[in-house]
Write a structure and sequence with these properties.
- The strands form five sheets. Strands 1-18-9-19-8-4-7-3-2 form a nine-stranded mixed β-sheet, with helices on both faces. It has a four-stranded antiparallel β-sheet with strand order 13-15-11-16, with helices on one face.
- With 443 residues, it is of the alpha/beta class.
- Helix 1 packs across helix 11, helix 3 packs across helix 11 and helix 8 crosses helix 11.
- The protein contains twelve helices and 19 strands.
- The radius of gyration is 24 Å and the shape is elongated.
- The two termini are 23 Å apart.
- Helices cover 35% and strands 25% of the residues.
- One of its GO terms (molecular function) is metal ion binding.
- Its cofactor is Mn(2+).
């Protein structure tokens, strides 16, 4: 399996399966209808926990295929269950929510939708993270598996999750009884489109794949006053600046260099006027890690450094900086080795070595991780990537002629047909690999 890096050699033509067969032909036959669905979903995005119309439309697709469908799980989530004899339980997830982004792709079916965020802000909405491709491939996969009941045995739990972008949807579905009200999975799979790999390639990471994501607020208290007389104040901006500098030592001097860690101060807000020293400053941090141990090391270190700097500034203890861990914590994604190895072998057999790449762990977050963490001793789980960069743009980027937009960019427009067809075929392959062994008695 080749390594997935940004500067891949230019070895890719239009993606084709390693061999033509009945599955790839069946997926190809579905693509015109699936692309019509994709364009509809792209043109009608909904924000996190507002995915009402999206959920209703896709729930109807599952019902028509004979799934037992439950809606409004964890808010707007959908759970579609297809029982097909004895065997393992496989959970397959797609996420539904769009982002508050004004689309700039120039697509003829670009989103013109506006909506009001939970903060009361009127915003444009766009599927800037490719969740529309995820949902479309989800539909393509359940169609194929419903038509192939003679090829597998077990239970498929196909879920549509709300609010992945807020890191809350998986938690809400689990808290609403996902593992108590419905068959509890032995395996969990999902994919995400990639803005840094050629369209139609598959990237798989063995082990830690995506990061713990924590949002932390540091409120720095001070004693305000006139900017001309700083000696009469305790300047929270100076104190905040010292905290920002000291926080850098957490990664550079306290975390083992072999462990990944990020502490980024994304916002530093204070003051209203040139000659006024404010009473308060506020720092907004994003904190990234893989292991639970490094996560706690970073979070406790932020609290220790912030409070210690307050003491050094001469503030009484009750005015030392206040550190708040926000609720939007997203745990790290871990691809369990046994299932990862099994699926890489299956993907390589189907797509060929040139299309199956060894992915690199990234510091982005994905709450798919919660489905494994809810019972990590008994669930095997894999989240894989499907490249979405159109081949012509990929080639131009390798020549240095253009820069590529990232996920969440207003300009991100994947080669949707390549993503959907590849992901559908890969998800069906994974499902048959997991559930099809029951038919043969293999383990």
């Amino acid at each position: 399996m080749r390594r997935l890096i940004y500067a891949l050699p230019l070895l890719f033509a239009l993606p084709t399966p390693a061999h033509a067969d009945e599955l790839s032909d069946a997926v190809a036959a579905e693509m015109p209808e699936l692309m019509e669905l994709y364009r509809y979903l792209h043109e009608h995005p909904e924000l996190s926990f507002q995915e009402v119309e999206t959920a209703a439309r896709l729930a109807a697709e599952a019902r028509a295929l004979g799934f037992d469908v439950t809606t409004e799980v964890g808010g707007t989530g959908v759970v579609a269950v297809l029982e097909n004899g004895p065997g393992p339980v496989l959970l397959m997830r797609a996420d539904m929510d769009g982002l508050p982004v004004e689309e700039a792709t120039g697509l003829p079916f670009a989103s013109q939708v506006t909506a009001t965020t939970d903060e009361g802000i009127e915003s444009h909405v766009m599927h800037a993270c490719g969740h529309d491709t995820h949902m479309t491939a989800w539909v393509g996969t359940i169609r194929q598996l419903a038509a192939r009941r003679g090829e597998w045995s077990g239970t498929l739990v196909a879920i549509l999750q709300p609010a992945e972008e807020r890191g809350a949807g998986a938690r809400m579905m689990l808290e609403d009884g996902l593992y108590e009200r419905f068959p509890k999975p032995d395996y969990a799979i999902a994919f995400h489109d990639s803005a840094s790999a050629p369209a139609g390639t598959i990237g798989v990471v063995n082990g830690w794949a995506m990061a713990n994501v924590d949002s932390v607020d540091v409120t720095v208290h001070g004693v305000g006053g006139h900017g001309a007389y700083p000696h009469t104040t305790r300047d929270p901006i100076v104190l905040g600046a010292r905290i920002v500098g000291a926080l850098q030592t957490l990664v550079s001097r306290e975390v083992d260099p072999q462990h990944a860690a990020v502490v980024t101060v994304g916002a530093f807000n204070a003051g209203t006027k040139h000659n006024i020293i404010s009473d308060e400053a506020r720092l907004l941090l994003t904190v990234r890690s893989y292991t639970d141990e490094v996560r706690e090391q970073l979070l406790s270190g932020i609290e220790r450094i912030s409070r210690a700097e307050g003491m050094v500034a001469g503030l009484p203890e009750d005015q030392w900086p206040t550190v708040t861990r926000r609720d939007e914590y997203t745990p790290a994604v871990f691809n369990t080795p046994a299932l990862t190895t099994q699926l890489v072998t299956a993907f390589t057999a189907r797509f060929g070595e040139e299309r199956v790449l060894e992915g690199e762990p990234v510091m982005g977050g994905e709450d798919f991780s919660r489905y494994w963490r809810a019972d990590r001793d008994n669930i095997q789980s894999v989240l894989f990537w499907v490249g979405g960069v159109p081949q012509g743009r990929w080639d131009a980027a390798q020549r240095g002629e253009i820069s590529l937009p990232s996920l969440h960019s207003a300009r991100w427009a994947p080669d949707a047909e390549a993503v959907i067809s590849t992901a559908t075929e890969a998800l069906v392959t994974a499902a048959l690999e997991i559930l099809g062994n029951e038919m043969t008695g293999e383990e």
